[in-house]
Specification:
single chain, alpha/beta, Rossmann fold, 5-stranded parallel sheet, about 65% helix, about 5% strand, globular, membrane, DUF218 domain-containing protein
Length: about 375
C-alpha cells in the first residue's frame, strides 16, 4: 500500500513540475470516487469510478513518459506491460484451466446444481466465444463477421460489468466499522440435515462473535446479536434457532441474542431485523452492522440500502474452492437487479451491429 501511495505521489509530482496537467484527469476521477464512496459505500457506480481512475492513470503514465522520459515511470510501464502481455498471451488459457479445475472440485465437494455449475458454464461460454472470435478472422463475409462480432461485444459488455462489480466488492471488504455498535445482524443460510449449522453459516456467526468480543474488550460496550433466518421447507427448525444455539455453545449469553425467524431471503433478513431493532431500541438512534460471507457482503449491503437500514457489512472467510461459483452467483444476482437496464443496452448493441451488418452486405459486394 505504501508503494502505491509513493508511486502515485511521485507520478503526480512529475506531472506538476513538467506542467503537463494531464494529472488532473486521474485526480478528478480519484476525488469523484472518494466523494461518492464516502457519501455512500453501497453503490455499484463506485466500482466504475475507481476503474475510471485506474484507466486514466494508466493513460496518464504513457502521456507523462512521452513528455519527460522519466526512468521511474519507464520502470512502472515496463512492469505493467509485462503483466498485460502475460495476461494476453496465456491468461485466458489459465482462466479456462482454473474454471474447469474449480468445476471439478465443486462437483466433488458440493451437490450438483445450477448454482454450483457456474464455473463450468462460464468455461463453456469462453470456449464458444473464442471459437466465434476465430471465425471472424477466417475469411467470412464482412456482413457475417459483423454479426459474430456482436456476440463478442456483448461478452465484452458483461466482462466490464463483472470487473466493476468485482472491484467494488473487493474495496467494500476494506470496511472497518467502529467498535460502537448496538446490534449485529447475522444473516442466515441453509441448515444441514434440517437442523445443523453449515461451515458457511458458522463462519458468519463466528465473525459476529469476534466483533462482539473485540468491542467488549475495547470499550466494554455490550451489544445484541440478531440471528436472522426463517425455516425452509427442508429444515426441521428455523435457521435463527440453530444459530442461537450455536452462539450459546460458544459462550454468548442468551440475553444478548435476539432471533428473527420469519425471513426467507436476504432482503427479508435485513428488513425484518431492521423492524426488530426499531422496536427494541424504541425508535432511538442506534448503530448496527451485519455479517455474512465475504463474497455476499456487498450485495447484502445493497439490500440494506434498499430497505432503509443504515448498516454496513463485514465479511466472514469462505473456503477458496467455493469462492469462484459464489462470486459468479453474486454477479448474476447483481445483473438481475438491473435487468431492464442491461436489456436496453443489449438491444442497442444488437440493433447497431445488425444495421452495420445489413449495410456492409451491400457496400462490400
Amino acid at each position: 500500500m505504501y508503494i502505491f501511495y509513493f508511486s502515485f505521489s511521485y507520478i503526480l509530482f512529475i506531472g506538476i513540475i513538467s506542467a503537463t496537467f494531464y494529472f488532473l484527469i486521474p485526480v478528478f476521477f480519484l476525488v469523484l470516487f472518494l466523494v461518492c464512496y464516502k457519501s455512500e459505500k453501497r453503490r455499484l457506480i463506485n466500482g466504475t469510478l475507481f476503474n475510471l481512475f485506474l484507466t486514466s492513470t494508466i493513460i496518464y503514465l504513457f502521456l507523462i513518459y512521452f513528455e519527460t522520459k522519466d526512468p521511474f515511470i519507464y520502470l512502472i510501464l515496463v512492469g505493467m506491460l509485462t503483466i498485460v502481455s502475460i495476461i494476453l498471451s496465456s491468461g485466458l488459457y489459465f482462466l479456462l484451466f482454473f474454471l474447469l479445475w474449480n468445476a471439478r472440485q465443486v462437483k466433488k465437494k458440493e451437490n450438483t446444481s445450477l448454482s454450483n455449475s457456474l464455473t463450468l458454464i462460464l468455461s463453456i461460454l469462453i470456449i464458444i466465444l473464442g471459437s466465434i472470435y476465430s471465425l471472424v478472422y477466417l475469411g467470412l463475409p464482412i456482413w457475417l463477421a459483423v454479426i459474430f462480432g456482436m456476440f463478442i461485444l456483448i461478452g465484452l459488455y458483461f466482462c466490464i460489468i463483472f470487473y466493476n462489480f468485482l472491484t467494488i466488492s473487493i474495496i467494500y471488504q476494506c470496511n472497518n466499522p467502529i467498535y460502537n455498535q448496538d446490534y449485529i445482524i447475522v444473516l442466515g443460510s441453509g441448515l444441514i440435515d434440517g437442523d445443523k449449522i453449515s461451515k458457511l453459516l458458522s463462519n458468519r456467526i463466528e465473525k459476529a462473535i469476534e466483533f462482539y468480543q473485540q468491542q467488549k474488550d475495547i470499550n466494554n460496550k455490550s451489544l445484541k446479536l440478531i440471528m436472522s433466518g426463517g425455516q425452509g421447507v427442508d429444515e426441521l427448525i428455523p435457521e435463527a434457532e440453530a444459530m442461537k444455539s450455536y452462539a450459546i455453545q460458544i459462550g454468548i449469553p442468551s440475553e444478548d441474542i435476539i432471533i428473527e425467524d420469519q425471513s426467507t431471503t436476504t432482503e427479508e433478513n435485513l428488513l425484518f431485523s431492521k423492524n426488530i431493532i426499531e422496536i427494541h431500541s424504541e425508535s432511538k438512534s442506534y448503530n448496527a452492522i451485519f455479517t455474512t460471507n465475504n463474497y455476499h457482503v456487498f450485495r447484502a449491503s445493497l439490500f440494506a440500502k434498499k430497505v432503509g437500514l443504515n448498516a454496513d457489512g463485514i465479511g466472514a472467510k469462505t473456503a477458496f474452492y467455493f469462492l469462484p461459483n459464489a462470486i459468479l452467483r453474486e454477479y448474476v444476482a447483481i445483473l438481475l437487479l438491473k435487468k431492464k437496464q442491461h436489456t436496453v443496452v443489449l438491444a442497442l448493441i444488437s440493433l447497431i451491429m445488425l444495421v452495420l451488418s445489413f449495410l456492409s452486405f451491400f457496400w462490400f459486394q
